[in-house]
Amino acid sequence: MKEEKIIEVRRLSAGYAGRAILSDVSFDVRQGEIFIILGGSGSGKSTLLKNMIGLYPAMSGEVLIRGENMIGAVGAVRERLLRQFGVMYQGGALFGSMTLAENVALPLEECTRLPREARALLARLKLQQVGLGQFADYLPSETSGGMVKRAAVARAMALDPGILFLDEPSAGLDPITSAELDELIRALSRDYGITFVIASHELASVYAIGDRAILLENGGIAAEGSPVQLRDNPPNNYVRAFFRREPERARAA
C-alpha cells in the first residue's frame, strides 16, 4: 500500500498578474504512485504543475517535497529540492541542434562534475532505459514525436530523481504511440519506484496508468480518487460529464 507522502500541497493559490487561477488547493502525492492532475482547458493544470516545481512563484501556500517547502526556497535549499525531481515539458523541449544523447547529458553537465566520458555513458544508459539506446546520436528532427517524448523522459531521469513531473506527455501522439508511452511510465514506476505527477487530459492514458487523480474546476479541486472510481461513481454532474465525455448540456441532466 502506497501511503508515505512524498509531496504535500497545502492551501496553494496561484495565478498571473495578481489574478488567481487556483485558490487554496490542497492534496498529497504518495511515494511510488502515478498521480494525475486533470482538468479542462484553462483549468490550471499546467499552472499547478509549474508552481509545484518552483518555475512560477505561488501567490500563497506551500509545496512540501519530503517535508521541505519548495515555495520561496532559495540558495542551497532550492538546489537540493531541484535535484529531487525531473521535469518533462509539453512537447519534449529538446534542443534541435543537439543529439538525443547530448540533450540527456545536459543536466549532468550543469549539475555534476563528472568528466565528459562519464556524462556521455550515463546519457546513453538513460536512453537505453526508455528504449532509445540505438538512437543516441540522432537529432530530434530525425526521430518521431514519440521518440522525442521518450528522450525528454530520459533527460528528466538523468540525475536519478525519485520524482518525475510530466506535462501533457501524450499530447500530439497517435493512440499506439501514446499506449507505448503509457507502458514506459508504468514500467519506470514499477521497476524503479519513481513517483510520477502528470498533468493530462488524455482519458485513455489516465485510465491506463493513473493510481489517483484530482480534477480541477473553478480554481479548486472538484474531485479526487482513482480515475476509474471517479468515472464509475462521479460525485457530481461535472465530474460525470468530464470522465464520461458528455457535452455541456448533459451536466444538468
Q: Which structural class do you get from the secondary structure elements?
A: alpha/beta
Strand content: 25-35%
| Secondary-structure element series | EEEHEEHEHHHEHEHEEHH
Low-confidence stretches: none
N→C terminal distance: 38 Å
Verbal overview:
With 253 residues, the chain is of the alpha/beta class. It has a domain at 92-160. Helices cover 36% and strands 25% of the residues. It is built from nine helices and ten strands. The protein has a six-stranded mixed beta sheet with strand order 6-7-8-3-9-10, sandwiched between helices. A hairpin with a 2-residue loop joins strand 4 (60-65) and strand 5. Helix 3 crosses helix 4 (116-129), helix 3 (100-111) packs parallel to helix 5 (145-156) and helix 4 packs across helix 5 (145-156). The mean pLDDT is 92.
Topology at a glance:
Blueprint: E1 5-16, E2 19-30, E3 34-39, H1 45-52, E4 60-65, E5 68-69, H2 75-82, E6 85-88, H3 100-111, H4 116-129, H5 145-156, E7 163-167, H6 175-192, E8 195-199, H7 203-209, E9 212-217, E10 220-225, H8 227-232, H9 237-243
Parallel strand pairs: 3-8, 3-9, 6-7, 7-8
Antiparallel strand pairs: 1-2, 1-4, 4-5, 9-10
Helix pairs in contact: 3-4, 3-5, 4-5
